[in-house]
Write a structure and sequence with these properties.
five-stranded mixed β-sheet
């Protein structure tokens, strides 16, 4: 199963693609959709929406895993990321691809085995699981790969029940 993991944002949307087959994750690609800070917000959303469609067409995923939002301080940022997440979900829905959503705690649990793991631990385990020489950059792309790995493990265990 080819999985596209998405770490939502409006300045940077991380993406990571893995092939998951019988418990094994194989790295395919990673990167980021970026929008310039000075661009009007509605145009940033349009750019994210368009680029999500391009990614879906390019990688042809069987499933897409998106991180759920978790914010505890800046409400304005949370709302803006929520808007970006909305256009991401719309792009996915228009391609009729199954969507799975995971909290940061679920991703950490699936990748590291501990839901309160530090970000560095998640990034390093993502590197190890995928057999990469270095931690993927930017951080948002490494997070997206971890989200894809989480879905592979979760979908795999759901299938084996």
């Amino acid at each position: 199963m080819r999985i596209l993991g998405i770490d939502p944002g409006y300045g940077i949307v991380g993406y990571g693609v893995v092939e998951h087959d019988r418990g094994k994750n194989t790295y395919i690609s990673h990167g980021a959709i970026t929008t310039p800070a000075g661009m009007p917000f509605h145009l940033r959303l349009a750019e994210i929406y368009h680029d999500m469609g391009v990614l879906i067409e390019k990688f042809k995923p069987d499933a897409i895993a998106v991180e759920e939002l978790f914010f505890n301080t800046n409400v304005k940022t949370a709302i803006q990321v929520g808007h970006a997440r909305g256009v991401i979900l719309l792009a996915i829905a228009e391609h009729n691809i199954p969507i799975a959503e995971y909290t940061p705690l679920q991703v950490k649990q699936a990748v590291v085995g501990y839901g309160r793991a530090e970000k560095k631990q998640v990034m390093e385990m993502t590197r190890v699981i995928l057999g990469l020489k270095a931690v993927p950059r930017p951080d948002d792309a490494a997070d997206a790969l971890a989200i894809a790995i989480c879905h592979g493990h979760t979908a795999n265990s759901a299938l084996s029940k």
